[in-house]
Amino acid sequence: MKERADVPQGTLALMVLKTLELMGPMHGYGVSRRIGQISGDLLAVNQGTLYPVLLKLEQEGAIVSDWGVTENNRRARFYELTRVGRKQLEVETRQWEQTAALVGRFFTVKAEDLT
User: Fold this and answer.
1) What is the pLDDT of residues 72-98, one digit of tens each?
2) For domain 11-114, which architecture applies?
3) CA neighbours within 13 Å on the CB side: how many for 89?
4) Distance CA 83, CA 93 (A)
5) Half-sphere exposure of 47 (CA within 13 A, CB side)
6) pTM, two decimal places
7) Which of 1, 92, 14, 93 is nearest to 42 (CA)?
8) What is the pLDDT at residue 5?
9) What are the extents of the domains in the chain?
10) For labelling alongside 50, which of 1, 20, 32, 79 has CA 20 to 30 A away?
């Protein structure tokens, strides 16, 4: 049985942007399911968490939304990455990579490396 993971605040927005970049336009439930799948089912994103993030990203201009029909013939809002969102994704990806590299150094350094 896998233990669910918590992620730092702001990380979900990055995951949403990356998911939309990879998959193209998707409805909210599809984004949630794909994030779960990509995480190896370590993350479960509920609607009460996801939709405020989608709204915030839309207000910032990182994504746009429009009504469409799902594969189950249901009406849903579909979200798509904008040029602003692509730029935001690039910047945030670079910041996360730098942070991960920095923290990673603390797990690999040995006392003799510091003398």
Assistant:
1) 999 999 999 999 999 999 999 999 999
2) Orthogonal Bundle (1.10)
3) 18
4) 15
5) 4
6) 0.85
7) 1
8) 62
9) 11-114
10) 1
